Amino acid sequence: MYKSSKIFSNRFKYVNLVSNVAKYGSDKTQNCNVRSFEEIPGPKSYPIIGTLHQYAPFIGDYDVETLDKNAWLNYRRYGSLVRETPGVNVLHVYDPEDIETVFRQDHRFPARRSHIAMYHYRMNKPDVYKTGGLLSTNGEEWWRLRSTFQKNFTSPKSVKSHIESTEIVIREFINWIKERNVSHNEDLLPYLNRLNLEVIGVVAFNERFRSFSPEEQDPTSRSSKTIDAAFGSNCGIMKLDKGFMWKIFQTPVYKRLADSQTYLEKVSTDILYNRIHYFEQPEDGDISLLGSFLKQPNVDLKDVIGVMVDILMAAIDTTAYSTSFALYHIGRNPEVQQKMFEEISTLLPTKDAKITPDILSKAIYVRACLKESLRLNPVSVGIGRLTQKDFVLRDYIIPEGTVIVTQNFVASRMPQYVKDPLKFKPERWIRDSESYENIHPFLSLPFGFGPRSCIARRLAEQNICIFLMRLIRDFNVTWMGEDLGIKTLLINKPDKPVSLSFTSRIV
Predict the structure, then answer these.
(1) pTM of the model
(2) pLDDT at position 39
């Protein structure tokens, strides 16, 4: 929650001062006795390889799939600013005050150094793509894409228009759980992947994948291959960003990325061309994102294909993982779940009652539960930025071209920023609660910040809240598995099976 305007005003004065000081080479910079980037504490760096040796198996202290553990280790060893040089200058930032300062330096077109191999792949297919897409493109081309498509993702009216179709799909899934008698001996995560494919299919493309039908549960079906391709696209991004051998020859990780992208292109192209072929104009009743894209004048179909692939990449795994962590926390905290049920049963007196925009807006405790879950288990360990100017942070000069990683996951679990940080306490986000905390607004940023924040944030939050409301209205949910950690594959994946028992509620 945001602090008072007076405090925020003081922060802006501080940031403006930092911005003024950060004129590299000016008298002000020299008068501040700023130190060089190389003086920031961090692991030992060697010529050519920098700190890449730290990620090498057996000899290094870091694992690219456990970035949270790497971050904790760095913080304990070096403090709240940590320098790395795995081929490029990297700065890890932990303190929310410093994180705010970093984001207040943002250029008009905030940049990231991410999805480099995917950008390479797409730019070598000019017959399919015009750009690298929303995830990997920077500069004016990124803003052209973002400004073209964001209204359909972000406007409250557009987002609310998808509540009915989303709830229909989720109701089908709830009934499937009952009919299938899903038990704690099964990992729920693959089913949540299918659910989110089905939801995004309807919301984004007005397309039913029928992913829970017997035919579509076959490993060779379109649904199964789409889910696998989304994961195959995401799981190697971090490794490819840190590596370089794929630029010389096609490594196994790059090949999986390329094969996965090719399949998502096929699915997207088939859906798009089928829509164009059968309908000269988009259907009047089609309120999907694709339908709105095609109504825009002079839209480039190559851009549409790129955004469709980005949607499939981002929506399936990300929402499924975030939902899994929310169920983990709710299933382990029966007193929280009881408060959720009391709120939900008041808003939905019967199991058949429909969720409307007004009802969803009143589900304050449900939204607080999601916010608390995203504090403890955000989508990723932090947010990346590629600096586009020199600036000073804590008396260190941060050069243009530095990759900054904000370590929000670790910071959100620190007692100096949150009371009882490991406790799942949704009340800390509710203003009229006795347990409300005035948490720094830059501490928990699960969807990013500013114009580069997740374009589908409102949709993702809405979809998860609808799912939680429907599930808790019908079932008492109990966590039956082990303590759940994360595996950092670009986005944070549960590192163990999602094991839940479902007990039907009578009322």
Answers:
(1) 0.90
(2) 96
Does the pLDDT of residue 229 top 90, yes or no? yes
Separation of alpha carbons 224 and 197, rounded Å: 10
Query: For the chain, how many helices (H) and strands (E)?
Result: 19, 10
Q: Closest Cα partner for 386 from 138, 15, 94?
A: 138
Query: Residue 392 belongs to what domain range?
Result: 5-504
Dist CA 110 CA 131 (whole Å): 17
**For residue 145, pLDDT beyond 80:** yes
Return d(Cα 217, Cα 385) in angstroms, integer.
39
Structure tokens at 205: 């493309």
**DSSP secondary structure of 131-160:** SS-TTT--HHHHHHHHHHHHHHHH-HHHHH
The reported pLDDT for the residue numbered 283 is 58
The domain tally of the chain equals: 1
Per-residue pLDDT at 277 exceeds 90: no
Q: Which residues are paired to 50 by β-bridges? A: 46
454 belongs to an annotated ligand binding site: yes
Give dist(CA 120, CA 177) in Å, integer.
42
Round the CA-based radius of gyration of the chain to a whole number and report it: 23
pLDDT at res. 456: 94
- Residue 7 pLDDT: 33
424: which DSSP letter? -
pLDDT at position 25 is: 38
Per DSSP, the three-state class of 367 is helix
pLDDT value of position 434: 95
CATH assignment of the domain containing 497:
1.10.630.10
57 CB contacts (<8 Å, ≥6 apart)?
Answer: none
Pairwise CA distance, residues 326 & 371, whole Å? 9
Torsion, Cα 254 487 45 19, to 10 degrees, reads 100
- Cβ atoms < 10 Å from Cβ of 180: 11
Q: Classify burial at 241, counting beta carbons within 10 Å of its beta carbon; exposed 0-12, middle 13-18, buried 19 or more.
A: buried
Residue with tokens 């499939």: 312
> Terminal CA-to-CA distance of the chain, rounded, Å?
35
Mean of all residue pLDDT scores within the chain:
91
